[in-house]
Amino acid sequence: xxxxxxxxxxxxxxxxxxxxAAWNIAFLYTLAISFIAKxxxxxxxxxxxxxxxxxxxxxxxxxxxxxxxxxxxxxxxTVAARRVLLVGEREAIQAFARRYEPWNLGFEIxxxxxxxxxxxxxxxxxxxxxxxxxxxxxxxxxxxxxxxxQTIERVVDRLMTLPVSIHLGPERILDRFARVEIVKxxxxxxxxxxxxPLTFIEIIAKRAFDILAATxxxxxxxxxxxxxxxxxxxxxxxxxxxxxxxxxxxxKPFWIYKFRTxxxxxxxxxxxxxxxxxxxxxxxxxxxxxxIDELPQLxxxxxxxxxxxxxxxxxxxxxxxxxxxIGLYARRxxxxxxxxxxxxxxxxxxxxxxxxxxxxRVEYDLYYIDNWSLTLDxxxxxxxxxSRKAYRNAY
Length: 395
Prior knowledge:
With about 400 residues, the chain is an alpha/beta fold. It folds into 3 domains: about 70 residues; about 110 residues, 3-Layer(aba) Sandwich (Rossmann fold), CATH 3.40.50; about 190 residues, no CATH class.
């Protein structure tokens, strides 16, 4: 419900993801019904794939055209999602307009009711009510600091006589958070600034997908694992598998498994691999180049320490160092770490020898956390295999 509401076409979020999710669900339902009706045999696989791809492309193009049309109409004032009356002190209203440019968000500012001072508050509120009745706005925004509770109560009490929605204008701190909502438990109401990135149902769905895919992957790759292990042992002395402690969900330590790509050496500082690193073996260089050294982490996925997709876990000393220097770095641990991730498929992998490199990687990791979906996971897995960016900076 509400997928065709005008604000969704103007907002930067949910423009494409929601229609694509609806298309995938509709397509899967169609295939399921065809299977139940025993008519799937009459369908050509090529035609089914072609229909899926062409339909998706047509949906994206049509949605893109509508978005451009609605955004342009909104900016020129031809169409507006809501008609808004602003009530508050003059400086606060001007600051609100400069900061948010509400006309670009689908709002038409139909008028302003300026509150001059506490001495004239009753006269100002009477004038605001008259303006509201004359202009017929859909919403009234009360633009003033939330700490000014007494004045806000007086404004709201007076404007509740109008048939409009009344909103408190945004406080600047709210701009930091993607999803802010009012949570009410009995008579107590709180402003929820952040919540766990995944709901209980989403956690179950992601875990079920991880178990299924990791089980299939291990079953298919077992002979390949044996061959890789043999080549590693022949190339240099030492075990085929390497394990190292990393931080997982909620910063819980776990042992990560990888194919060994370096010669045995003492490294108390856990020095990162660099281009031309003499510790990397001949076979190790190829394993790193094609991400093959990460495949044993399918075991970590089955155990439950990792997911197929998520922020890549870093060595504990690096993790502790960057957490002290980069804000919100620790938010990466609000989900399970992954074998691959959004940062990696966008080219941010390899050594993080500067704060700027790690900061860019963290930005992509946090985007993934805030925008998770099974569709995004499938996209990342596909790009991990097919995209050239996913193999960049492999030392």
